[in-house]
Every structure is written in C-alpha cells, then in structure tokens.
From TrEMBL:
Domain Lipid/polyisoprenoid-binding YceI-like: 24-194
Gene3D superfamilies the UniProt entry points to: Lipid/polyisoprenoid-binding, YceI-like (2.40.128.110)
Stored InterPro entries: Lipid/polyisoprenoid-bd_YceI (IPR007372), TTHA0802/YceI-like_sf (IPR036761)
Record flagged with keyword Signal: yes
Taxonomic source organism: Stigmatella ashevillensis
Name of the featured protein: YceI family protein
Keywords: Signal
One Pfam family it belongs to: YceI
SUPFAM superfamilies: YceI-like (SSF101874)
Signal peptide limits: 1-22
Amino acid sequence: MKMLLKSVITAAALAVPSIAAATTWDIDPAHSSAQFTVTHMLITKVKGEFGKVTGTVNLDDKDASKSTVAASIDTTTVNTNEADRDKHLKGPDFFDVEKYPAMTFKSTSVKAAGKSKFKIVGDLTLHGVTKPVTLDVESASTEVKDPWGGTRRGASATTKLNRKDFGLTWNKLLETGGAVVGDEVAVTLDLQLIKKAPAAAPAAQDAK
C-alpha cells in the first residue's frame, strides 16, 4: 500500500508541470517606487513619487496570460520635494488622502509583448474612481539570490493617465492661455519582487 501511495504521488507531480512554472512574488516596498511627471505652466515638468508600493504578482513564465498582478500605492507618501505643494496634493483639491489613502491596481489581462515585455491591462482605482489602464512592463528575467537567502527579480512599468478621468480637476488658467497644471500624467513604476516560498504540502499519513 505504501508503494502504491508513493507511485500515485509521483505520477500526480509529473502530470502537472505547469503548476511548477507559476510562482508568487511580493512587491518589496523598501525597494519599489511609483514616479509621476506632469507639465507645469506649459513650460516645465514637475516630478514626484509615492514611496510605499505593495502587492503581489502571480507569475507564470510559460504562459503570461495566466499571470496576475494586484498592487496598492499609499497616496499619503506623495513627495515632490516641496512641502507646500505636497500639502496641496494631499488635500481635497487633489488626492484627498484622508478620504482616499490608497490607489489600487488589479490586472484583468496579461499579454506577452516581446522578450521579457508585457502588456498588462487592469482596473486602477484612484480618488474613488475606477478606470481601465494599460501598463507597458519590462521584467528582468534573471533571478538573483539576496544575502538573506531570498530570491528577487525586478520589473519596470510605464503608463499615461488623464488626471481628470479620476476626478482630479483642480486648475488655474494662465493669462497667456493654458493652465497651471497639465492634464496628462506620465507614470513610471520601479518594482523589486521577492519570491514567496511555496506552502509546505501536508505530510501523507501511512495507510493502515
């Protein structure tokens, strides 16, 4: 009976190689960030970032369409290196962080777009509004071991948003025409991922 049980377990493991190809990765908030760039007064670009990005990536290297991404960005961490501007951005005119302390992204489809490149479509919820967005993602296919015994890999993603689509409509007009703050926002994500250890399989009990 014991030999039969071992044979069944071995056969099951060989029958599902695709499961082994799927791995789960946690976004490391200490080494990940989200940056944004927006036009100011039609003449310069203002850059800022959010410092706390968290989430999970379920990655299938053999079939990208089976992969999923879920991430959250802490809007209270917005930083443009200007205290007064950051206070304004955190207030009701923009992110309204007391009411909406996070923006979230949840993928709805993942498609390969070349070597280590992907198109990830998902729902972005920002300022209480949910809209579909597309991320252009480039992933580092190489895994590296960190000094603490973990396994890591990196990825970067870019997209462009119209802030008005998410109810961020505050602006002031210039005497020469145009507005103080541009509507289009360029977004860049730099992510470091930590491989999650697979859950231990329950030990098989001896058959009586």
